[in-house]
Amino acid sequence: MPARPPRTIRRRVPRRQTPGSRWSSDSTRQRSDSTRQRKAAERQYEAAERQLENQVQRLNQKLRTMEEIQGLADQQLLKAEEERERLLAELHQLEAERDVQDSRARHRLSGLDQELRELKRDVASSDKMAAAELSVTKEQLRSLHRTAVQINRERTEVRQ
């Protein structure tokens, strides 16, 4: 708003009335009253205009403040979204690593299961072989025992 020149205060000087100038002074007074009313209306209009301009300035300032707040909120939202994306990527990476580790563990368990089955089969085979050998050895011992008993009988018979 352009700056206004300072107002000068004019001092009102009372007019002298003359007997024949009654009508002219009334019309002057009426003009002066209407001028005063017009000036008062102008002052009211200017005051209202200044109030509106001040209100517009306050609203513009509030708007700038709200825009700054909105900008900060947008920045925080962007940071939060970036953090979320980073955490999701990290989670996917951890899940992929876990899947690889699970696969390795399953492979190792599968190998261990196969080895255990082979060991069980080998143990069963060796148990069968040991049982067969034990049975053969038992038969041999029985045979030896019979032979020893027979030899002892023959000796006792020969001595008698």
Describe what this molecule looks like in 3D.
It is a single chain. With 160 residues, this protein is mostly helical. It has a domain at 24-123. The chain has one helix and no strands. It has one helix at 22-159. The chain is rod-shaped. The protein starts with 21 loop residues before the first helix and ends with a helix. 0% of the residues are buried.
Lay out the secondary structure.
Layout: H1 22-159
Can you describe this structure in just a few lines?
The protein is mostly helical. It has one helix and no strands.
What are the key terms here?
160 residues; mainly alpha; rod-shaped
| Ends distance | 158 Å
Q: What order do the SSEs take from the amino end to the carboxyl end, as H and E? A: H
Helix % is: over 70%
Total beta strands:
0
How would you classify the helix and strand content by structural class?
mainly alpha
The low-confidence runs, each spanning 5 or more residues with pLDDT under 50, are 20-24
How much of the polypeptide forms β-strand, as a percent range? under 5%
Put simply, the count of helices is: 1
Morphology? rod-shaped
Mean pLDDT: 87
The biggest sheet amounts to:
none
Rg, rounded, reads 61 Å
